[in-house]
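Annual report, structural modelling task.

Input specification for the manganese (II) ion complex:
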Amino acid sequence: MFTIDDLADRLGGYLPSDEIQQVRRAFYYAEQAHDGQSRRSGEPYVTHPLAVANILANMHMDHQSLMAAMLHDVIEDTGITKDALAAQFGEAVAELVDGVSKLTQITFEDKAVAQAENFQKMVMAMSQDIRVIIVKLADRLHNMRTLGALRPDKKRRIARETLEIYARIAGRLGINTIRVELEDLSFQAIHPMRAERIKRAVARARGNRRSTMRQIQDSLQRRLDEDDLVGSVVGRQKHLLSIYRKMHDQRKPFAEIMDVFGFRIITDSVDNCYRILGAVHNLYKPVPGRFKDYIAIPKANGYQSLHTTLFGPSGMPIEVQIRTREMEAMANNGIAAHWLYKAGQTERPIAVGSHARAREWVRGLLEMQRHAGDSLEFIEHVKNDLFPDDVYVFTPKGDIMELPQGATAVDFAYSVHTDIGNSCIACRIDRHLAPLSTPLESGQTLEIITAPGARPNLAWLNFVVTAKARSAIRHALKNQQRSEAIQLGRRLLNRALGGFETSLENLPTSRLAALLEELDLKSEDDLLETIGLGTRLAHATARRLVDNALTGDDKSSAETTTTSPHNGPIVINGSESMAISFARCCHPLPGDPVIGHLSIGKGIVVHRHDCGNLEELRDDPDKLVSLSWSKQIDQDFPVPLRIEVETRRGLIAELASLITDADANIERIGIEERDARLSIVNLTILVKGRIHLARIIKRLRNLNHIGRIVRARN
Ligand code: MN
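The model returned the following structure:
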């Protein structure tokens, strides 16, 4: 059995002993944490993290990645917290473990296949540190190696997810050794029979060709030696899934795919790559048109090599790849090759800043592309995939929505559907109620709670980030404002008409039509809206309507009108949120005597009848509207209070709990003056009305050490 000592030996090849010691410590910690747990195979659980760390050791990953591998299931499976890990092993390792755990928590349902690309992006977006993904890939690789006796359907599900998401991510990052193994293991789990058949056919073909392979390999190697060229020749094999895909997608017979002999020659320098190319072309004739120079012009993912095809003995095709050790490492390990390299040099790898290193990798690709004169489009693509600016979240049904960074639940609601956005009132993030303004994070599941008749809130414009949400909210608010202004305009005009003992309904329609034409307005609603918004005066409009009517040919209808129901004051019922607003100078409450002021563009602003600001406004009595409060009004109103108290400890807490007990909320609290004896507390509380406020003030007076309580105004 593979032990921590075996691993430590292996690490001795590239890590200093203090770091190996830390990896050991992480192992012992994990062993204890998973104590009593075992894998399906019956082995102690800790064999799994150990095996994952070993995979990373083969890639020469840094000690923090190895420690994270040891601990990767600890948060998830043993209830030890991230903080506890941070205290033991440092912030960086704890972050890595936390990142891997978050990825583990996402369940990719069967839908994953349809949304594979988005899932891949989500995984990337969730991994702040590229090492999180590398650890996760190693974890998945070991789980795939030990799928064992799982139910076939479960196996297939995991395999499909591996193929569509993790193998692809490995591919994007250029980690081909892991990609190839994940692909073959998945293929075997999804199509066990086909995989078995191909495996056997490959073994048979290989047996038949063994002597030919050896013969060619020897002659290639001999030629290098004769020419004093450094280089080793190895036979190359296609992996199962790539054979299957060729057969399946390109409809090629197995024999034809296997009919090619593949070799790879690894050397020490770029110069030698070209010298070796010359040597092998000298040995066997090249097939025209098959030579590719991926060293001078690398592939988009950074792959570099020389490719050529030769006519072998008796005309059989031989494919040869020639590359340096560095190119080989890059081809196998991609982004992970950066750890591999730095470790080989005397200079120590920088343990942190792995994202910087990932960027370096991307920059390396970019550099290569520039030399190659290729389009940068692919690189932009890779960059976006590696460092997505977007957030990926789930709908309750498991669909993935892509939103820009900083998007909130309201953005999400509008991106699902405008109606959902317009009627949303709350949200659950990962099943917990959360404010609509909470910025979303990748991997979260969002549920929007809607209510019929709910309306968008002006304040949402402060935090939404998507253009769709922004314009939908504006649009809805505008419609809402218009319909409220029309309603209010109708009430105002009817009230004014009441003074002439008529009403809109009782006026002949020709009167209205004539006035609309005179004013160049399209509809009755347009007229009412201008009245409701205060840009046109109800009284003057009523007079013109009535004058028209009286001088017109249809006097009778105006004359027959008796008392109008529209005579009384306008009732404030709290639902007209846009056309009626409450003055901030005097903070009127239901129950206060109030007066409305028509202010242009704003509709009616409600003031207390004794508000100082009204004095100047009284000059224009046409703009004042008498108002009354509806009994049904159920809304919280802010009211500022100024309280003198004797200074002592616990005072604010006492005030706060008293107010909360009285079913009022505190909106703001501040202490204005404070000396040894006296403090002035400025409070703004939310109350239902004047009676509610009176009750609270009474209770406050019952407190000891309380002086004057004043309802403040600005
Ligand atoms: Mn695991």
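The chain has a mean pLDDT of 83.
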